[in-house]
Amino acid sequence: MSTKGQVLSYDFLTASVIFVLLAVLVFSFYRYTVFKNSEIEKINEITDISFTLSEIWLKEGTPVFWGTENVLDFGFSNYDRLNQTKLDFLKNIGYDTFKKKNGVGEYEFYMEIVNSSNSKIFSFGVYPEEPEYISKSRRLGILNSSLVFINTLVWQ
Amino acid sequence: MKKGFIFTLDAIIGLTITIAIILSFNFLKTEMEYRNYRYQKATYRAQDIMRVISTLRANEMNSEKINELASQGFLTKDDLEKSVLDLVTSLFYSGNKTLAEDILKDFFSQAAENFCVEVSVLSSSLDSEPIYISCDPSDVEEYAVSSRIETGYDLGKPTKGYMSRAFLNKIRGKMYDHYYYFGGYIGDGNITFNVSLPQNSSVKSVLMEMDAGSTFNLYVNGVYSGTYQPYRTGLEPSSWFVCNLTFPSYCTHFDKKNNTININFTSNSNNYIGGGYIKITYETSELSLPSSLNQSIYYFPGVSGIINLYSSFYSPGQLKFMETYLHFRNNYTTFFTIGNKTLYRTNSTSEQKVKLNNTYLSSQLNYTFYSGKTVPVKLGTEAFQIMVSGFGIGDSILVTDLSGSMKWCSNEPPGEDPHSSYEWTTWVSGGSTYGGWRWVAKSNCDPGYERKIDIAKRANSLFINTIMNTSGNRLGLSDYTGSQTVYNYTRGRWVTMFPDNMAGYLNLTNNSITLHNHNNQMDTWWGTCICCGINKAREMLAQQSNSQRKKSIVLMSDGEANIRCSQQGTGNAKSDAILAGQQACQENITVYTVGYGNEADENTLKQIACNSSYYYNSTNVDNLINIYQQIAEEISKGSFESQTINVTGNVSMQNILYPDSYILVGFEPEINPFDYGEVELTKETSIISNMTDYNSTREYVEGSYYIPPELKVVDAKTISYSSEFWTDKVSVKRGNASSWSTVYNLSSYGEDYLFMGDPFIVHIPSNSIESGAKNYIKIGTGLSPKNYTGGSPYDRVIYKVRLKGSVGYGEVFNNSEDAVYDANQRLINQVSGYVNVSVEDIQVENQTISGIQWLWGPSLLRVIVWEK
Fold first, then answer.
1. Are B750 and B340 in contact (CB under 8 A)?
2. pTM for this model (two decimals)
3. Does A75 contact B at CB distance below 8 Å?
4. pLDDT tens digits for B448-463?
5. Does the beta-carbon distance from A140 to B51 stay under 8 Å?
6. Per-residue pLDDT reduced to its tens digit, A15-43
7. How far apart are CA B215 and CA B212, in angstroms?
8. What ipTM was assigned to the predicted interfaces of this complex?
9. What is the edge-to-edge ordering of all strands in the sheet holding A77-78?
10. Is A3 on the interface with B (CB under 8 A)?
11. Are B107 and B53 contacting, i.e. CB atoms less than 8 angstroms apart?
């Protein structure tokens, strides 16, 4: 009897240990997968946004020479050159309005124009301080007759 | 054994569970992946590089190489204005690949960053060849490309060169035709007019073409310049060279500026010009003549004789202002008409200087209606003892009484004539011999008297002459009598002669000889069927005349109507005659009646005439002849509708229209000012009968003409020889247009042309003429809207053109001399044949060009980017 119960006890114990181990393993793996997917999704999304924003600096917009009152579609270049006047409008438009109208959503962004020596010429947006996620897009352009780089950072 | 089996079963179950869990791990592992943004980034960088090097100018690029080349003078200011891509491409194609590579190296040292870049070119003459490569591309699996098509370059071709365009600054000389146009009719007397020529002109030839009424002497600035005798008249003008290169002497009579020309007729009649012009051809170095764009002035020619002038003026654009100045002295009533509106009339015989100002004229005339049109003008003299003659439109029938009593002498009392007897007599007619009772001459009439038939025939003869004196009139004869039974000896039986009571008739004709022959052969017969004579006359007019002609019947009778007409059927001969006359009047036939002798039935004849004033009574020879003359003149006057006047009687010819009289018109200009270098020329087509598609009908003459494509027509007019008629319709059709456009229609001013002017030149809007295409024209003359007189085969179109005096940029040459030569030659080729130019007259604009989009190419430029 005792032998029989002992046998059962061993079996049960072994099975339980195996079950628990497997359960922990499964749960851990599930948690990791969900977390990782979320992170990838965010990074993809902010990368898309950073690319989209980087295009905005280099296109003309609608109207081609828009003002703050009549802008339908933002674009900060004319004749394939960045337009300083349009860039200056950004301050009037405001960060939040610009963000809302250009699909930045829950994220933040920061744009800076630097010259070939990496000296900042112009910036707009919120600079990322210890961001959880960040995507950077770097484009080439011409501002005031000089070659410049336009860095667009989208972050959370 | 059994235990072992149970264990084995557990193991299997456990293993299954384990596998299931492992599998579930895989299922749970649906982890998302990071997107591959490397290609996207490379693509952006390739696009950015292509955009920047296409936009950034070389002088904006921070490049040591560019600065070095610029300081060496290798790169010009124009080179530095090029885009980096333009500069690099032109250096590459011009064989400086290393320099192109160095410049790109400078650029990519700043712009490439973590990417590798290749810039290459591919053209029709070149396989893909790299200009610059920053890394070894052999193991590259993923790269982005941005391409751009460029033209203006090709291997071995110059990327810069010289092209020139040229403008005509002046001309060495051109032959210019200055036309002075006479109006449709200028008369009647000696004519004076002024012609102005440019200061630097040299007259080379003078041609006159006109319908002159008679021989005249020409005086230029008071100097005799020839006698000219017209050899054609009417719609066909005569033409003479006053002077030309072969006979230049009279050309020297012309001054370089103002010239007074006199046409002095050598006889006292037909002193008129029924349309024509004087063409003065002179050489000038002026590109174009100064002319007002918003006003024009028409000067009347001076006339010394009887003022009788038909002409026109033209407002090229919207008519805004008018002023007329009339300076004349006329011993008779003078009137002035524009369109159909008589604006001025005076019977003052002293010298008149009359200005009709714009206020008055604008209140009388519809300026809008006259805008852009040729407007007829008449300045004339009202009726005095002038017998008009010209083109007749009269159709008349002389209805003559050939009753037996017409054989009697004119002085005998009614019912008896001792010089005649009623007896059996024989005569031959139509190849047969007849016998019958007739009145025959028994002896001569008393001295000074004649038989009535002979007097009637003389009166008829005079009537024929008077009516036929006016060209166009026609006359017919209707000889009435009564029927009689006579014996035909030839056939041997009794027959009824003149069953219709008509002794004979002659259809309407303009042949005087035929009329006189018929008249001379008239003889007397039997009864008096007046209605028969009238009915025959009505029948002839109905069949041979038309509603546009003026119809009349002149009926003569020496007795009473004694034969009835079934056509009228009143049952009474006199009533039938009266009714026949009234019916003729209702048919627009003017019926005159003449009662001759004491036995004439005055009462009946008065009722036959359309109006009692159209009844004449004569009891003697002279009186009858005078009556016939009077009626004939009245018919002639009534049928006159032309511009000529023949002066008879005691008329003063001391009437003068001074040549400072004018019509000034101000208008909204529609002609563009001259472009720089444009040359003005006057050209003329061949005469219309030599044009292609020539056609001549009762209504008009028609033809087509071609304007060369290099000529821009700015003003055009047709000349129309209308003689004593009126030019009344001109229509034009341009190029392939489907319908005709009427540019002149005299009937739009009214149907009675007699009181309206007559243009010799009718303007054609320049937009109705197409260069480089066939253009059509129709010209018609007439006496009324429905009475056509055809048109002149000598009509033609005279037009002013502007010749383009410039050529644009041509081929690209390696040096400026070749480019200038090319431009000069192209311009000279363009204008030669029209003007005389040399290289010194031409201003050339020479330009260095490079990178012209259409010069060479195309080439495909590629920027290839991949990650390091």
1. yes
2. 0.50
3. no
4. 888 889 988 988 998 8
5. yes
6. 788 888 888 887 888 888 777 778 888 88
7. 7
8. 0.85
9. A77-78, A81-82, A134-143, A146-155, A108-115, A120-125
10. no
11. yes
